[in-house]
Each structure stands twice: as C-alpha cells, then as structure tokens.
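Example record for the data management plan.
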Amino acid sequence: MSVRIVKRPDLGVSVVEVAGELDIDSAPAFRECLSGLVGDGVARIVVDVRRLRFCDSIGLSALVTTQQACVAQGGFLRLAGADQTLLRLLLIVGLSDYVQSYATVEAASSGDPVVRAYAEHARTTEATA
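Corresponding structural encoding:
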C-alpha cells in the first residue's frame, strides 16, 4: 500500500491518496497517517481510493474511526473514486451513509448532493444485480 497526502487549500480539504491493498498488514500505517492529520487539526479529509485494489474490515475500521474524529471536530471524511466493489462493501456492512462516496475529489470536497445521489443510484443498482 502507498499513501500520499495532498493539501488542497482551493477545495478546503486534505486529500489522502491510497493505492494497493488496505488490509490487516497495511491498515495500521494508514490509520496512523489519518490520525496524524486529525491530530494536526485537519478535520476535512477526502480519501482518494481510485487506485485502491482491496479493502478489508480493518481498513474500513480506520475509515470509520477517522470519520468519527473528523465529525467531532466539525468536519468529515469522504471517499472519492470508489469502485463498485468498495461501494458494495460499504452498503453491505451498513456504512454507505456514514462514510460517503463521491465520484471525484472535487465532488467529495463540496459534498455535492447531485453527485452523491448518482453514487447512491449506482450502489443500489449494483446491490440488486
């Protein structure tokens, strides 16, 4: 797994680009990265998962605990570019409303409800297929 943090003052967020597999072996480093951001006062985080190939329950846990910390500071953690597999996983475990997914970093930054609605439709369509 590789992680890169990109500050996007134009969007008012920090973007965490993650690639590879987010699993029991890599999740602790990912969680530490996210915790470091929150500890530095960053409460608006977009995790760009376009290059993420796999995510297990430990990876999901890192996302959920960071979302909780961001919300406590008046912010959010949102996903950008999730594929159908990750969207379906979030739906199955009941996290799709809590860890929201958007098509792009820009949409996730703004919380654009139109793009969110599209993601909801795609998720619902995939789940029933």
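Summary line stored alongside the record: Helices lie at 27-39, 57-72, 84-92, 105-110, 113-128.
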